[in-house]
Amino acid sequence: MSNTTTDTTPKSGDDQDLGAAGSQLSTAPREEPPHLPALGVIGWARWFWRQLTSMRVALLLLLLLSLAAIPGSLIPQTGIDETKVADFREQHETLAPLYDKLGLFNVYSSVWFSAIYILLFISLIGCIVPRTWQFVGQLRGRPPGAPRRLTRLPAHTTWRTGAEPEQVREAALALLKKRRFRAHVTGDAVAAEKGYLREVGNLLFHIALIVMLIAFAWGQLFKSEGNKLIVEGDGFSNTLTQYDDFKSGNLFTNDDLVPFSFDVEEFTGTYERTGPNKGTPRTYETELTYTEGADGEEKRALVKVNKPLEIGDSKVYLVSHGYAPVVTVRDGKGKIVFQDAVPLLPLDANVTSSGVVKVLDGYRNAEGKKEQLGFNAFFVPTFGGSASGTMLSQFPALDYPVLALSAYHGDLKADSGIPQSVYQMDKTKMKEFKDADGELFKKLLTPGETMTLPNGAGSVTFEKDIREWAGFQVVQEPGGGWALGGAVAAIAGLAGSLFIQRRRVWVRAVRGADGVTVVEMAGLGRSESAKVPEELGDLAGILYDQAPGAPEPDGAAAPETPDPTDTDTEAGPAEGAEQQ
């Protein structure tokens, strides 16, 4: 018996000798160079299709898609934040027109990004379909029979035994099946193959990529995203008119909105009081009462940061928080013309806030003429006192709330037909209220205090009731579950294709010229399958115990007693184990 050997040196006629046994251990198509002089239109089209559906091109397109997504992360996008896009245009007058031509303000809807996306999709489909049919054919068939000369395979071993050939083949068949090989007896040899899950993993990875691409496209086309600021005690219904701002995909319609509504019962925020993290939020949560559909049962939920309320395909996220002081405005006769909580926008981490109080209807000045009132509002939840020198909050909680108001009267141009921000005031037709020194009339108020306007124009009261508001983002993006499932399947498939090795083993047992049975074993794996010689040596050792070696014929040199598990590497490890 000779030692198990591995030989990676190509030999003339290897492919012819291996025959079907040397067929590919995967479903990857063979690449053949085009015969340029003989190529016509159909030939060039066939060659181009083969290149497009090759794994090399698919990986290249996947890399290009990743690189193409980088501008979408670095450059403001129209579909995400139009305000930042407008600011970028103002600050970069030279770059902005170039970016417009290249579609960099709307990367994911640009022609070039869509072209890469579609080509990758076609490449994956064209790669997977033929490989899947080929793999199904391999599963339905049997492992190929042994080649004529097993000694030409990279890993092989042989010995003589006194057992009958049929006994050796039966023992080899049982051994290989026990090791979970697909094995059968063909002619004078046993053919076995193992590691089909490698190709399953490979195909699963590619199919998962297609699922992820479809899920991404579906989500982009039918997605919706809206924001809504809601004061404690107020509610929201999931209709288009209820949103402060709303964005959606190209195929989204109003009928796709999930029907639900909710009321904000209470917002709770707690903060670190001491230490280096003083002022850092510890708890942001909102208690909601919601219903699904028009006649749904009323339910309660607690929405926290990164813990959204899920209703059907919609998710309600808590994304922001601020204060809404309750302000009461009276005219010169003491009639209430405005009383409501006024949401103010935070300017810093300590919730220093600003906004506008607008009185649009019902107010008459001291002369009885209709006018509109406007007040610039500046609010701090924790005032540092006059010694601080500035109107800045010292802490985000309501420890010492102060409201600063400056008063105007006139026309707010609310009826001009031009949309206005509720947090800003158009002063082009407004006049300032003047104090005794002829300066803009303004005052600092604590809860419960009143500011009396000059010349009997009325008064403004900062009520003791200070409400809080919560900002919600309602996201509806179908296909998210499919994308997640595709990602998990892709990881599982990639792990299978990397760690599972497909290989073949043959055991031939024939009677020699002297009547003694000669056993030959050989293994074949993919080029990276360095474990084939080790596994073959292990199998040979077990089979050798069942069919021990016989003495050499008379006159032959008596070699050392071999160990079938030894591996003699003649040309390095079993690289090139698959001769194709």
UniProtKB/TrEMBL annotation:
Biased composition (Low complexity): 547-560
Biased composition (Polar residues): 1-11
Keyword Membrane recorded: yes
One GO cellular component, as annotated: membrane
Entry-linked InterPro entries: Cyt_c_bgen_Ccs1/CcsB/ResB, ResB-like_domain
BP GO annotations: cytochrome complex assembly
Residues annotated as domain ResB-like: 55-536
Domain of life from the UniProt record: Bacteria
Location of the region described as Disordered in the Swiss-Prot/TrEMBL record: 1-32, 540-580
Transmembrane segments: 57-75, 111-133, 203-222, 482-500
Compartments where located: Membrane
Membrane topology: Multi-pass membrane protein
Keyword annotations of the record: Cytochrome c-type biogenesis, Membrane, Transmembrane, Transmembrane helix
Record-given protein name: Cytochrome c biogenesis protein
Species name: Streptomyces capillispiralis
Lineage, broadest ranks: Bacteria, Bacillati, Actinomycetota, Actinomycetes, Kitasatosporales
